[in-house]
Specification:
Layout (H helix, E strand, L loop, with lengths): L2 E5 L4 H12 L3 E6 L5 E2 L5 H15 L5 E4 L9 H18 L1 H5 L4 E6 L3 H4 L5 H8 L3 H9 L7 H22 L10 E8 L5 H7 L4 H6 L11 H13 L10 E4 L3 H5 L11
Parallel strand pairs: 1-2, 1-4, 2-3, 4-5, 5-6, 6-7
């Protein structure tokens, strides 16, 4: 069977995905702050380099799949949110790509979010700084906000980080370095999922009511395993070969409820 690396594998969606991939007979190299084969802080340059080096060593330089599930959100410092969610994910995708291409038939799934389409007024300059690879600029833009550290800044930082990683996937997936090298790169955009991250938000006096009031047409929150089931299909499902550059929304219908006519968008020349 195969060898897969999963960041954020100690809890939430990452842990649920690990369980599914291992039950299917595969080996998993987990990456997290604690309790995994590779212990690393993806919020720092040194931590990202250590994570890549650790996975390459344990995998002997060959991976059948990668999931970047590590992520943080409100209530937390906005700059930390962007550093982990975008720059941490992108560093793993970029740094472990040679191990994925070494197999000639691999899958990579970045965990985005439905906040990409339902969060208003996300700063385009912040998304652009991420996609330009300028972490210092991204953090500076957040620090310079008149409402730096406010709930609004946290929410927009989270959405910007998830928009940026989804756009990075779309930009790179069809290219020679990914699809051309036998690696299918995609993203999943979960909605409200009962992970430790969401539970932390629900316990907050400010964010708890906002989260609870967010409309989910199918009702309730998703269980982490419900999202992991779709990631499993993207990694080892029968139809995975033809999936490339897709951002798959698994959000109980929230995106469709809020923006029913915005996608698919006509291609205007």
């Amino acid at each position: 069977m195969g060898v897969f690396a999963i960041s954020g594998a100690a809890s939430g969606i990452g842990a649920a995905t690990r369980n599914r991939i291992e039950r299917a007979g595969n080996d998993v190299i987990g990456i997290d702050l604690d309790g995994c084969e590779v212990v690393a802080d993806l919020g720092s340059t040194a931590g990202r380099a250590g994570a890549v080096a650790g996975v390459l060593e344990l995998s002997s330089g060959r991976l059948d799949g990668l999931v970047t599930a590590a992520g943080v959100g409100p209530p937390l410092d906005p700059a930390t949110i962007v550093s982990i969610n975008y720059f941490g994910s992108q560093a793993l995708l970029d740094g472990l790509r040679p191990a994925l291409t070494a197999t000639g038939d691999a899958q990579a799934v970045a965990v985005s979010s439905n906040s990409t389409t339902v969060t208003p007024s996300v700063p385009a300059a912040l998304v652009a700084a991420c996609l330009d690879g300028d972490e210092d600029q991204a953090r500076a833009l957040l620090a310079e906000r008149p409402d730096a550290g406010s709930p609004g800044a946290m929410i927009q930082a989270y959405a910007a980080s998830k928009i940026a990683i989804a756009h990075w996937v779309r930009r790179n997936a069809p290219g020679a370095d990914w699809a051309g090298a036998g690696v299918r790169l995609n993203a999943i955009a979960p909605g409200s999922t009962l992970t430790p991250l969401l539970e932390h938000g629900l316990e907050d006096d400010t964010f708890g009511p906002l989260i609870s009031g967010f409309a989910v047409p199918t009702g309730a929150h998703a269980a982490p395993d419900e999202i992991a089931a779709w990631i499993e299909q993207m990694l080892i499902g029968d139809g995975r070969r033809f999936l490339c550059g897709t951002v798959l929304f698994v959000d109980g219908g929230t995106d469709a409820l809020v923006r029913p006519n915005d996608w698919p968008a006509p291609y205007a020349l």
